Automatic annotation (TrEMBL), chain A:
<comment type="subunit">
    <text>Component of the oligosaccharyltransferase (OST) complex.</text>
</comment>
<comment type="similarity">
    <text>Belongs to the DAD/OST2 family.</text>
</comment>
<comment type="function">
    <text>Subunit of the oligosaccharyl transferase (OST) complex that catalyzes the initial transfer of a defined glycan (Glc(3)Man(9)GlcNAc(2) in eukaryotes) from the lipid carrier dolichol-pyrophosphate to an asparagine residue within an Asn-X-Ser/Thr consensus motif in nascent polypeptide chains, the first step in protein N-glycosylation. N-glycosylation occurs cotranslationally and the complex associates with the Sec61 complex at the channel-forming translocon complex that mediates protein translocation across the endoplasmic reticulum (ER). All subunits are required for a maximal enzyme activity.</text>
</comment>
<keyword id="KW-0812">Transmembrane</keyword>
<dbReference type="GO" id="GO:0006487">
    <property type="term" value="P:protein N-linked glycosylation"/>
</dbReference>
<protein>
    <recommendedName>
        <fullName>Dolichyl-diphosphooligosaccharide--protein glycosyltransferase subunit OST2</fullName>
    </recommendedName>
</protein>
<keyword id="KW-0472">Membrane</keyword>
<feature type="transmembrane region" description="Helical">
    <location>
        <begin position="27"/>
        <end position="49"/>
    </location>
</feature>
<keyword id="KW-1133">Transmembrane helix</keyword>
From TrEMBL, chain B:
<keyword id="KW-1133">Transmembrane helix</keyword>
<comment type="similarity">
    <text>Belongs to the SWP1 family.</text>
</comment>
<feature type="transmembrane region" description="Helical">
    <location>
        <begin position="192"/>
        <end position="217"/>
    </location>
</feature>
<protein>
    <recommendedName>
        <fullName>Ribophorin II</fullName>
    </recommendedName>
</protein>
<keyword id="KW-0472">Membrane</keyword>
<dbReference type="GO" id="GO:0006487">
    <property type="term" value="P:protein N-linked glycosylation"/>
</dbReference>
<feature type="domain" description="Ribophorin II C-terminal">
    <location>
        <begin position="182"/>
        <end position="284"/>
    </location>
</feature>
<dbReference type="InterPro" id="IPR055374">
    <property type="entry name" value="Ribophorin_II_3rd"/>
</dbReference>
<keyword id="KW-0256">Endoplasmic reticulum</keyword>
Amino acid sequence: MSDKVSSAIQKLWTSYSKNTPQSLQLIDAYLVFILFSGVFQFVHCVLVGTFPYNAFLSGFISTVGSFVLAANLRIQTNPDNAGEFKSISPERAFAEFVFCNIVLHFFVVNFIG
Amino acid sequence: MIRSLINIISWRAFLLVLLTLVLVQADDFVISDVKIAVTTSDSVRKLYESIPYPSSFDKPIQLTSGDDFKMIFVVNDKQTQKGVQPHQAFLTLTSEKNGNQIPIIIRVRENGKSKVELDMKSAPDELLSSPGNYSLDLIIGTFSYNDPLKYHVATLEIDVPIQSSGHSPVVYGPKPEIHHIFRPDEKLPPIWLSYSFVAIVLIPWVFLIGAWACIGVNVSLLARAPEPSLMSILFLGSLLAIEILFYNYWTHLNIFQTLTWLTGLSIVAFITGQKALSDVQKWRSLGLR
């Protein structure tokens, strides 16, 4: 059973690393990074309490927002979806990603207190 | 000639002023037939006196528990000597000890006849809880007469055992100062926990850098780009500058300074970004990446 699972995971991993474009892998790494940043902040909040509530909220919301933006970037730059986003080049998607991130960071820093 | 004219005019003016004064003075009332009586609890009349109006009763009137004080009088117009019903008429008992005032409302009939009673069996709590000498004044005021009237009738000597009826006498004066108490500080978690979580939150950064290194970030393209990649570097630099600006906003800048800087930096970032990304697009179409 465990052999099967591990072999399935191995197969998934090799096909992922073979078939996924490098830029998407970079985004995936970034997504995992964001995910764990948020998870650790949440764990801290559960363990310690919400005392600097603004700080917790802004930190957590910033991870959530970054995750959403990065996921959108991944969707728009995926060559498989190119048909759906004909008018949006990967560069334009990246520019939008940068712009939205700046706006998000401005609000997060404004709220952090 | 002119002088005598002025004389006549000024004399007439003086007369007019005098007349109005007289008229104003005429709007006045007087009190008459003031009679006071004190009856004890066993219906013995202790005191019965009539007081000629402007003067006061010279001896203090002693009231012990169970006594009933009565006072009658008539309110008249000074000129017509007809009865007047004023809008407001009451007795005030002013403590000579602490200045507290106790009002008793008087009902005056249409013909000016008035009657007021102070029964010690049902006297106000303030009176019973602080016996002593009280100044008894009659106060009458109404709209159609200019001057209200305050007439010191007599002095009352309230002689009852002190009753603590649960009500403390009303004392007007400054209340004790209210000190503001700040909410106690929130308890901070132990410092080692905070530091360990700082370390834990930094772990994803290690992962990110490691993963990107594994996948292979193609920085080398910057070096072997067909055109100078100054724009890309400027673009990334302006983004970094914006993030540093946000950090400074968090630590010490105010929003106006921040917005000024942000305007300038975002213009730089926009122009360089457009250039840089169109370069990148060109490389992509050339098949360099």
